[in-house]
Write a structure and sequence with these properties.
The protein has about 90 residues and is an alpha+beta fold. The protein has helices at about 5-10, 20-30, 45-55, 65-70, 85-89, and strands spanning about 5, 35-40, 40-45. The chain has a domain at about 5-60. The protein is elongated, with a radius of gyration of 22 Å.
Length: about 90
């Protein structure tokens, strides 16, 4: 028998954080819509719906572009390597 997951179970597993995010995942990213057990209870099958969807997700995202790419390799202010100053103090 398949384990049925409710919304709070999806949250506990880190799949979604809000109903808005869940709706976006269903509409734009192919997350299974689940099924209604009653007018106010929606569930998803862990083995048949959620796990296969998670396994098909990409492991790494696309390469950053534009400002994100420029900022990726830039050092942060105040994060200079001052090991010589720390050793003399």
């Amino acid at each position: 028998m398949s384990t049925l997951l409710r919304f709070r179970d999806l949250q506990a597993r880190g799949v979604v954080k809000s109903w808005t995010q869940l709706k976006r995942l269903i509409e734009e990213y192919g997350f299974p819509p689940g099924r209604m057990l009653s007018p106010n209870i929606r569930v998803w099958s862990e083995e048949g719906e959620v796990e296969p969807w998670l396994k098909n997700r990409p492991v790494a995202g696309p390469e950053p572009r534009g400002a994100a790419k420029a900022n990726r390799d830039r050092r942060r202010k105040g994060a200079t390597n001052n090991t010589s100053e720390a050793a003399t103090a």
